[in-house]
Design goal:
The structure holds two protein chains of two kinds. By secondary structure, chain A is α/β, with parallel strands linked by helices. Chain A has ten helices and eleven strands. The radius of gyration of chain A is 18 Å and the shape is globular. Classes of the chains: A alpha/beta, B mainly alpha.
């Protein structure tokens, strides 16, 4: 098992205006290993989503948010001057909490959106990419006969897998998932958790979750966040069985959070 | 249930019924005014509404018959051109306000659009007079279109901003997370999502401008004949309504009421289309 670092945050601090942000007491240092699932856990408001969004420069859109420190993607700082955030996001995709199929588009167009909208017109290439992405997201069999139907007709769980397919279609190296199953029923949740185990062969995955059982089931590494700081990071099994920090232990044993 | 609780509950139902009655009364009053205006216009003007009214141009005073074809067609031309002029500016301003909320120009843009929204319509006519009529050396449908366009820009900007701000933030983030540039996200994801609302806003701006006479008094000016060339003076329904209403002739008065009815029908139709659009798309 190689321990190849794919992404890494170095002294990362995210501030919201004058209010306290994430990592203000020294910055977050977190390695994300290639083809592994890293879970970010912690109580609401602990900063795990804020941290996640720093990994593909989504904070650029929030003028009050200031990011300090570095995020290395294959050793290159994505916050270095001259780096185009659009290109960063091509390599580091994201799936959000709420399933957001583009409501005006068909299933096919949703999946192809990331390719079509940058000018790729080659029918065959699009067809292949759509099928590969939908298979990758374990949705192909359910929608292959109605690719032209509006995506808004899909169920919540299907829509979430559609957004995963959409993210996969542009072939990112890293997939950031912000509580991807928070609004789904148990069966859809199961489908997406199963999916993660196969997906990590293609991409490096970072998943924010409220659900500790989920973190334990799907992740190889876990980072525990509390009050804007990363308290502990380690292999999931170790973190859940022999936590080093008493705060981690308190959280995973359900004493708070 | 205890007696006090039951009494309290009954009291709540009484208050509820009272409030519902008040709301119904208010609605009725609003309808009544609309109904009275319509009924009066119908009584006074329906007699003039015949096929000639739509197919023939106006006749000089003294001659009977004739219609207001030149004003109906003119309204569509001037208002349509005005919409074409206003559309790019109104949409652009609305997009800037909604999609780039921190753009340094926005506070001024917002102030400007608020001021323009509350500005008396006749001042837009004055503006078009100075900017278009004077340099061109005469009244024209085009100058009227500019006047109506100025009037529509703030309406469009506001409706566009409002509609775009209803598009879920997630749509934008999902697009950006795919590695799409921001302009592409706005153009291909945000605007199509807001399509129905955008169409509604455009139609309402059109309907609002269609009823304006004041900005056209010294721009489009009016014409007794059908005029399709926007560089010449063009007649419109509100202009003709005004001219006829202050005339001393009874048949012109009747036609003025009829013009009012047609204008009302045009605006109602546009509003209905707007509502249909917001449901269908």
């Amino acid at each position: 098992m190689s321990q190849d670092v794919h992404m890494e945050s170095k002294n990362l601090v995210v501030r919201y205006g004058d209010r306290i942000g994430v990592g203000v007491k020294g910055g977050v240092n977190l390695p994300l290993y290639r083809h592994r699932v890293t879970a970010l856990i912690g109580p609401s408001g602990c900063g795990k989503t804020t941290f996640l969004r720093a990994l593909n420069r989504m904070h650029d859109l929030t003028p009050t948010a200031k990011v300090e420190g570095e995020v290395l993607l294959d050793g290159e700082n994505i916050y270095a001057p001259g780096v185009d955030p659009v290109l960063v996001r091509r390599r580091v995709g994201m799936v959000f909490q709420k399933p957001t199929a583009f409501p005006t588009m068909s299933i096919y167009d949703n999946v192809a959106a990331g390719l079509k909208l940058v000018g790729i017109r080659d029918r065959k290439r699009l067809d292949e990419a759509v099928e590969r992405a939908l298979r990758g997201a374990a949705l192909w069999d359910e929608v292959k006969d109605r690719l032209r139907a509006p995506a808004s007709g899909l169920s919540g769980g299907q829509q979430q897998r559609l957004t995963i397919a959409r993210a996969l279609a542009v072939e990112p190296e890293v997939l950031l998932m912000d509580e991807p199953t928070a609004s789904l029923d148990p069966i859809s949740t199961q489908a997406i958790e199963d999916l993660l185990l196969t997906l990590k062969e293609q991409v490096t995955i970072v998943i924010v979750t409220h659900n500790m059982q989920q973190a334990a089931r799907v992740s190889d590494y876990t980072a525990f966040f509390l009050n804007g700081e990363m308290v502990e990071f380690g292999p999931t099994e170790t973190l859940f069985t022999k936590p080093q920090d008493p705060r981690t232990e308190a959280y995973i044993t359900g004493r708070f959070g | 249930m205890s007696l006090e609780k039951e009494l309290a509950l009954r009291r709540r139902y009484r208050v509820e019924r009272l409030m519902m009655a008040l709301i119904a009364l208010g609605t009725l009053l609003a309808f009544l005014i609309l109904f009275l205006v319509l009924a009066y216009a119908f009584l006074k003007g329906a007699g003039a509404l015949n096929l000639d009214f739509f197919l023939k141009d106006m006749r000089p005073p003294g001659e009977t018959g004739g219609g207001l074809r030149q004003a109906i067609v003119g309204t569509l031309i001037v208002d349509g051109l005005g919409l074409l002029i206003a559309l790019p500016f109104g949409l652009a301003a609305g997009i800037l306000l909604a999609e780039y909320p921190d753009h340094p120009i926005n506070p001024y843009l917002r102030l400007l659009s608020d001021t323009l929204n509350g500005m008396p319509a006749i001042l837009f006519g004055l503006l078009a007079f100075i900017l278009v009529v004077k340099p061109m050396g005469g009244f024209s449908g085009l100058s009227g279109a500019f006047a109506l366009g100025f009037l529509m820009i703030p309406i469009l900007a506001r409706s566009t901003e409002g509609v775009l701000s209803l598009v879920p933030r997630e749509i934008r983030e999902a697009g950006l997370a795919l590695g799409l540039p921001r302009w592409r996200v706005i153009l291909s994801l945000v605007l199509p999502t807001a399509r129905a609302g955008l169409i509604t806003g455009v139609l309402l701006a059109f309907a609002r401008a269609a009823g304006e006479a004041a900005p056209l008094l010294f721009t489009a000016f009016g014409s007794p004949l059908l005029e399709l060339n926007p560089l010449k003076p063009i007649d419109t329904l509100p202009l003709r309504l005004f001219a006829y209403a202050i005339s001393p002739y009874d048949d012109w008065h009747q036609q003025a009421w009829a013009a009012g009815l047609v204008l009302f029908a045009l605006i109602t139709l546009t509003s209905l289309l707007a509502r249909l659009a917001s449901r269908r798309f």
